[in-house]
Amino acid sequence: MTVMAWEHLREPDLRGRTVVMTGASDGLGREAALQLARWGADLVLGVRSRAKGEIVRERIVRETGRPDAIRLVELDLAGLAAVRAGAARITAAVEGRGIDLLIHVAGTVTRRREVTADGFERMTAVNALAPLLLTDLLLPLVRERIVVTASHAHTFGAIDLADPHFTRGGWSLRAGYGRSKLVTMLWGLEFAERLQEAGSSVDLQLVHPGWVLTNLQNATGSARLDRVVTAASRPFAMSPSDGAAAVLFAATQPLPPGSYIGPDGRGALRGRPTLLRRSVAALDRDLARRVAAWARAEVAR
Prior knowledge:
The protein is an alpha/beta fold. The protein has helices spanning 27-38, 50-64, 80-93, 122-138, 173-197, 223-233, 240-252, 285-299; strands spanning 2-3, 6-10, 18-22, 42-47, 70-74, 99-104, 142-149, 203-207, 260-263, 273-275. The protein has 8 helices and 10 strands.
């Protein structure tokens, strides 16, 4: 059988493999989780909303006929203590089995600057720092691959380690989101190279899903305007199932360590998954080391 209408790829066999995933309650994460279950994976899904997680569980069981294919674990990425508690729950859920694939899809967009209980700008906290902390905590259990959802929005991000959380101003949705994704790209680069240097059997892949019609775009603060944005985007943006393709490709296909995967269409907005170019800043290894060191110091609080 072919994979996701890619006639040159065979369907992965994930039977007996354990996949831990964030962001599966909605959008492309939900679609990716469903496809992984169809391929036989046993899923442990970190969810902030138990109710939304149960809806996903019911759908996966209904469509796969596998009642034991999915376990839900409470996980809130907006606070360091909550991430640590979630990691402990995940560890208990996979006891004796380990983790074959660790996939980070969860993310957030805010329409104004918000600060978490740890004093972090919220998009940087959820999109960049929480995945790093969760990866560090679960790494001893991971056997094969880590997939981190970044974004081509990193190309308009800028790093300011003197004021990483915009406490002195300069925040906008574009600046905040772009910085959160550039931080992700940089710690991901450093992490991938560190795994290679250590001779680890685990590799790390970075993913840009493309322009996907999900709830993340509903950040205007106006339900009416959100509907207008969604309606205007619908003819051009990919569906969540199509947007999941890059995540699934990065999770299941043979790739060089530290690859950056995303759509092959114009502007990397839509299309089939391929290797993408990243920005010059996202390839700066010295900057990656400094950003990764800063990020680890933040999450060590």
